[in-house]
Each structure stands twice: as C-alpha cells, then as structure tokens.
Amino acid sequence: LIVMNVLEKIKNGLIVSCQAEEGSPFNTPKGVGDFARCAELGGAVGIRSCGIEKCRYIMQNTSLPVICLTKSIFEDGFVRITGSFAEVEALLKINATFIAVDGTYRIREKQYTGPDYIKKIKKMYPKILVMADIATSQEAFACYEAGADCISTTLCGYTPDTVFVNQEYPSFSLLEECIKFVPRDFPIMAEGRFNKPEYAAQAIENGAWAVIVGTSITRPQIITRWYVNAIKKKVGQI
C-alpha cells in the first residue's frame, strides 16, 4: 500500500535528479540539498540523488519522496548504480525507502545480473521500493519479472551495448518499447537527456509514468557550456 501511495504521488510529475560531479561547488550535501529545495518550490513531485550523506540531507530538508542511490564503476569502466548489497544496506541505514539499482544484465557481486540482484533485494527487504535503471527493453521486462516496483530508462547510452545511441536526444523509442513490453499501468519513468520541457511533456504524452530530469536543471556549468559552445560555433561561422 505504501509503495503504491508513493508511486501514485509521483504519477504524471517531474522528478529532479539533484547530483553534482567532482569539482562542482554544489558537490556537498547542502549544495544538492539546496537544489532539491528549489525543485520542490518549483513543483517537482520527487527527488533523485546519489550518495549516503547527500540523500540523508535531502530527506531531512524536503518533504518529497527521495529516490536514493550510490554510484561505482563496473569492470568495463561504465557507471554502476547501487551495485552491491553493502550499498543497499548503507542506504537502508539512513532510512531510505525508495532506492534505484542497476537493472542491466552486467554481473555484480560476482554472480548476479541486474534482474537476479533485484529479485534478491526484494526478497531480503520486501518493504523497500526498487527502481530498476535499465538500458534496453529486454532488461526492463526482466526487471519487471524480477519484482522491481518501477523502471527507469536512465542507462540508455551509458552501457557498452547502447553507447551508439544519439547522445543529444532522449530515447523515445526505448520508452515506447518498455511501455509496450511490460503490462499496462506498470510505472516506466523517462530519464536520460529529457533536457527540454517539450521533451518531458512528450514523454508523458507517450505514456511515461513520470519524467526524471537532472543535468538541464542542476548542472549550471554544463548548461553554461551549452550556451558558450553554441555562441562559439556561431562566431566561427561569421
């Protein structure tokens, strides 16, 4: 019941991913926490964030549901989301009730694919809400069958199998495939390069449960670079 209440609360809304990279002045619990509070004031229905202390700070300073995660690296050098049982337990220690985990087929803990790992997490901790971050529709369906509570298209473009996708445009085709492959009304979140309001609106129109946006809201140095590069390109043409 609690699970469905949280998911119903975020339906048709915007979740803001409040994260900051190494070297950013915002890369502190208070820095990302201030972004989260701004997101709440702007009408966001939820927050997604990375790191134990940052997630703890955001949960203490906003009233929104917080999707908590940790990040590490797979052996292939690509990002891994909450990739071990120890990381799950560390998030549970700060009273996280909604966590994002890597749902791709890559092996973690020496033996588990993403769907296997989710199945085990749900068995060990049945009360927590698990968002499976996937890169393909096959992974989405496998994570649904493994017991994930919702799916997010987060990792499309960020795994060895999907690096070929257009890095400047959201993967609407993956969103549509996921919606088609899993049963109707199962929550599929649109995440990954939905960096314009019209893209977010289109995702909801196409059937996304909610939209998760990070960089274009909470990475000022990257947004600045978009403008600087556009101007430089134009100056080079004059």
List the helices and strands and how they pair.
Blueprint: H1 2-10, E1 14-17, H2 29-41, E2 46-50, H3 52-61, E3 66-69, E4 71-73, E5 79-81, H4 85-93, E6 98-102, H5 114-124, E7 129-133, H6 137-146, E8 150-152, H7 172-181, E9 188-191, H8 197-205, E10 210-213, H9 215-218, H10 220-237
Parallel strand pairs: 1-2, 1-10, 2-3, 6-7, 7-8, 8-9, 9-10
Antiparallel strand pairs: 4-5
Question: What report would you give on this structure?
Answer:
The protein has 238 residues and is of the alpha/beta class. Helices cover 43% and strands 17% of the residues. It has ten helices and ten strands. The protein has helices at residues 2-10, 29-41, 52-61, 85-93, 114-124, 137-146, 172-181, 197-205, 215-218, 220-237, and strands at residues 14-17, 46-50, 66-69, 71-73, 79-81, 98-102, 129-133, 150-152, 188-191, 210-213. The strands form two sheets. It has an eight-stranded parallel β-sheet with strand order 3-2-1-10-9-8-7-6, with helices on both faces. Helix 5 (114-124) links the parallel strand 6 (98-102) and strand 7 (129-133). Helix 2 (29-41) packs parallel to helix 3 (52-61) and helix 5 (114-124) runs parallel beside helix 6 (137-146). The relative contact order is 0.13. The model has no long low-confidence stretch (mean pLDDT 96).
